[in-house]
Amino acid sequence: MQAGRVVPGPLTGLHPPGLLFAVLGAAALAMPFMTIAANRIVAGDGIAVWVLAGPATWGPGLAALIAGLALGVPAGRPFARMAGALLGLSALLWLLVRGAPALLDGAGDYARVSPAAGFWCLLVILSLLLADALAERTPGAGARAALLAAVAAALGAILWSGALDRLSVMQEYSSRADAFADATIRHLGLAFGSVAVAVAIGFPLGIACHRRAGLRGTTLPVLSFLQTIPSLAMFGLMIPILAWVGTSVPGAQAIGIAGIGFAPAFLALVLYSLLPVVGNTVAGLDAAPPAAVEAARGMGMTPAQRLWRVEMPLGLPVILTGLRIVLVQNIGLAVVAGLIGGGGYGTFVFQGLNQTATDLILLGALPTVALALASAIAMDILVELASPAQGSA
């Protein structure tokens, strides 16, 4: 190497994450792409992508997958990586839609086909490739909201079209459509309802802790202790307490308070939510610059005016970050509520575990993951919109 001159290395011009995704994607292509089983209970046989159907099906799909992964390798081309990720995801959908009927042809009335490890690995890899491309472009809040809406609309259109109805997980759904709708309402009620109640309790409590150091010193340790209790133990503790309330308080059972069911799960989630809500409210209000608070005091603002006009706007991003943590946490913890009759998607998860039916587990797990991911992205957008830099831009 001469002075003042850089000799290109072997990886010059390559995007390291894209190269890693390409290598991992090539390894995933060697895994079984789908499985076919005699019925919904027994373990299926793995089928490679090039055995799904004739060359007219797997040929274009495999070529598109390889091309999509290859587009992620060159450096400095985020739009190419984005296009490659979308091409690869489209190829995955093509292979599922065309491969499932081909595998079921002549396999018997009770045969089931499901995505296998290769499909799930490729789905994760291509999703990470898309996220990497988007991160380099740093889209604003509006662009991310539009992208989230577009993805939700595309996913809804695919499911509504019936293109995936031959998959085992969709057959599980078709036989439980009414139960799935009820579980969705229960899950949303557990996750979002518990957050709403925690905000109604924790936000005023956080303001009080911000104002009074003594109250903060006693409240936060208690809430921290509640946060350390394992979820199953917390749900178990709620059962005898609410069972006693249901039998001792007139009218309690009439409004649904009992030892098992929705009430103990809801109460446990509220208790889990209090620490992030109270803690981030205190941290957000404390984050207001002392100079700004003193200036507001010098202008003659009352404590309430300083709170709502100065401290709250400056601390809102931190407070919303706490709500994001709580919401994503509760969407996941609500699954455990299925163990005590709380309903939600956990009902299908634990039914599938009892029946060794993997696709019934997925019927509960997949919407939980999708709901948590969408909620996290939506809350990130709100945090960015609430930040002072965004507001002044």
From TrEMBL:
One BP term from GO: glycine betaine transport
Keywords per UniProt: Membrane, Transmembrane, Transmembrane helix, Transport
Family of this protein: Belongs to the binding-protein-dependent transport system permease family.
Name of protein: Osmoprotectant transport system permease protein
GO cellular component: plasma membrane
Keyword match Oxidoreductase: no
Organism name: Wenxinia saemankumensis
CDD domains reported in the protein's UniProt record: TM_PBP2
Transmembrane segments: 47-72, 79-97, 117-135, 147-164, 184-208, 220-245, 251-275, 314-340, 360-383
Keyword Lyase on entry: no
Main location: membrane
